[in-house]
UniProtKB/TrEMBL annotation:
GO terms for cellular component: plasma membrane. PANTHER family: ABC TRANSPORTER PERMEASE PROTEIN MJ0876-RELATED, FERRIC ENTEROBACTIN TRANSPORT SYSTEM PERMEASE PROTEIN. Keywords: Cell membrane, Membrane, Transmembrane, Transmembrane helix, Transport. This is Iron ABC transporter permease. It comes from the Bacteria. It is found in: Cell membrane. Pfam families: FecCD.
Length: 360
């Protein structure tokens, strides 16, 4: 009962009118970030030409016949898909982080702590260093990473089910064990290989990038992430209940185990598609949910949407920085995220006004 009262109090950290106002501000800032970020790039293209191309391609408004084919392709095939992918990845990682932390009831959980990251890394390493999966086509590295991420998530659930009912603790320990195993295999393959170029490719891919964004992949990634996010928002009552623990949930007549497994599988699908498109980008799923809880408390009805918006904005500007920080080159976006995320996370840890689930 005490936990229930605490959760109820934390839900009231921010009033509904304020929540709506902050939501509108974040949506407007996301739209501003989306349109403004398209203007950044190594090649100078006028803002007018950029929006002429977008309006013509999407709504068939105006003419772009006087623009060169190269400029049209840079805007339509490079910059726009890249920004949209950054939004989708930020949304997916942040929402997955919220779900992971609720499922295992651990504030340090993120989409990768259950081994999904290490599984994807192993898949990419096998593809790049050993050429496994080359028959899958030009995107064989990403596809191999997706397959291994999904296999690992199945293994984690299966391992947690051994020896009785799966619990959040067993899920966490199973994930850590399989993550360590996958990392060991990846390290062994890289250590014993003499393929220097392959090592550089693996390192760059594991640090994440949006440079491979294209419309064909976005047609799949967008519905997967958006539909999953909407689904999880509808599940906010169950997610709130997970923070209270199994004993309370059983008392209230809800068995959380089947929900945990189902949510974990959906999350692994999201992460698999994101890894396929952008490589591995850490820290987003860890810090963004904490930022949302710091402002909005524990109610998942609020923090899921807020995390999606904050994560999207964070990755848009991280990608812009990654492209501008070195002239004529691109820094892996994972490095930028770590530089931003690590100090932010340290601040959250030392803050006396913050605890898992909101302010103390």
């Amino acid at each position: 009962m005490e936990d229930s009262n605490n959760l109820k109090n934390k839900k009231c950290l921010i009033e509904t009118p304020t929540y709506i106002g902050v939501s509108i501000i974040l949506v407007l800032f996301l739209l501003f970030s989306f349109f403004y970020s398209i203007t950044f790039g190594s090649i100078d293209i006028s803002v007018k030409d950029i929006y002429r191309i977008i309006l013509h391609k999407i709504f068939n408004i105006g003419s772009i016949d006087n623009l060169s084919r190269a400029i049209i392709d840079i805007v339509w095939l490079v910059r726009l898909p890249r920004i949209i992918l950054a939004i989708i990845v930020g949304m997916g990682l942040s929402v997955s982080g919220v779900i992971m932390q609720a499922v295992v009831k651990n504030p340090l959980a993120d989409p990768y702590i259950l081994g999904i990251s290490s599984g994807a890394s192993l898949g990419a390493t096998l593809a790049i260093m050993l050429g496994i999966g080359t028959t899958l086509g030009s995107n064989y590295v990403g596809i191999s990473a997706f397959i291994m991420a999904f296999i690992v998530s199945i293994m984690v659930v299966a391992l947690a089910n051994l020896g009785g009912r799966p619990t959040s603790t067993k899920l966490l320990l199973a994930g850590m064990a399989i993550s360590t195993l996958c990392s060991s295999f990846s390290s062994f393959i890289i250590y014993t290989s003499e393929n220097r170029e392959g090592m550089r490719t693996v390192a760059f891919w594991l640090m994440g990038s949006f440079s491979g964004a294209n419309w064909d992949n976005l047609k799949i990634a967008i519905p997967v992430v958006v539909i999953s996010t909407i689904f999880f928002i509808t599940q906010y009552r169950t997610l709130n209940l997970m923070l209270l623990g199994d004993e309370v949930s059983i008392t209230l007549g809800t068995d959380l185990q089947r929900y945990r497994q189902f949510y974990l599988l959906i999350t692994s699908i999201i992460i698999g598609f994101l890894v396929f498109n952008a490589g591995i980008i850490g820290f987003v799923g860890l810090i963004v949910p904490h930022i949302a809880r710091l402002i909005f408390g524990t109610d998942h009805k609020k923090i899921l949407l807020m995390s999606a918006l904050i994560g999207s904005i964070l990755l848009i500007w991280s990608d812009v920085i990654s492209r501008l920080i070195i002239q004529g080159s691109e820094v892996p976006v994972g490095i930028i995220i770590s530089l931003i995320g690590a100090p932010s996370f340290v601040y959250l840890i030392v803050s006396r006004t913050y605890g898992f689930g909101g302010k103390n």
